[in-house]
Each structure stands twice: as C-alpha cells, then as structure tokens.
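haha ok so turns out i had the wrong file open the whole time. this is the CORRECT one, sorry everyone. sequence first:
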Amino acid sequence: MEDNSLEQEVARALLSLKITIAVAESCTGGLICHRLTNISGSSDYLEMGVVTYSNRSKIEFLGVSEGIIKEHGAVSEACVREMAMCVKRLAGTGLGIAVSGIAGPTGGASDRPVGTVHMALAWSQDVESWRYHFKGSRREIKEQASEEALKRIRERCESIEHG
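then structure:
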C-alpha cells in the first residue's frame, strides 16, 4: 500500500530534488521534525532540527540578532526569517524552515493573539514568510502549524522542480 501522507510527499519531493532541509522550531516544539522523521530514511534529507524555544537560544544557538528580537519580538516575521536563514546556514542545507508563535492558552496579546504563528522558509539567498491565525487548543495550533510547514516545504519543492 502506497503512503500518500504529507510527510511521505515531502520526503519524495526532497529526495527527488536531492535537497536537504534544516528546521528551527519554537512553538511547535519539535513536531515538524517528529513528522519528518516518521518516514524511514529521513536522514537522507533531514540534516538537523532544533527547538529554540527561548529568546536566548534563538540568539546564542541560531545566531538571531538580539536587536531583531528586541525590536520585533520572537513571534515576528523578522525573527522567523532570520531563524530560517540561520538554521539553513548552520546545517549547510538547501532549505531552512522556521516557526515561532503563540500556541496558548496564555501568552497572547492584542497585537499577537493566541494562535498567531509566523513561519519562514529559506532557500538559496531567498526567504519567504507567512503569518497565520490558527484556532483551537494548544495541541491543535501546534498541529496546524506543523501541517502548514510541511505544505510549504512541498510547495517550495514543486516550485523548484518546475523552475
């Protein structure tokens, strides 16, 4: 029986293009890597995954600018764009994806309510980013964010494949 899960589709796409990926997660706490590693042989395309939950780890481990976090916050487009580029550079991969958000039920604010998630995907010298407003429990928000991350990876692979 053929596995047509999103995880398997991403695996096929990355393997087909011979592209490796690195993941920097915050609010998803490793869920994206968990899903990627559900596929046997994932070490052929997943180079590294890190959970940089604190601001300190984003700065000290990934190399995110302290000024970006002070000016924009960890849950911001600017932060995830830098996280994606940093993890891609650290791992030496073709793609780098980063996620930071507020899974709740606490931590929301009027300008960043619970469910706000920023995501960025870096390739070559380019970075694309998105902002989401997911609904549901903490677990549901994390699952929705990981689902979108895998979809974005698959879309980027399709874009690369089709030129």
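The longest helix spans residues 138-161.
again sry for the mixup
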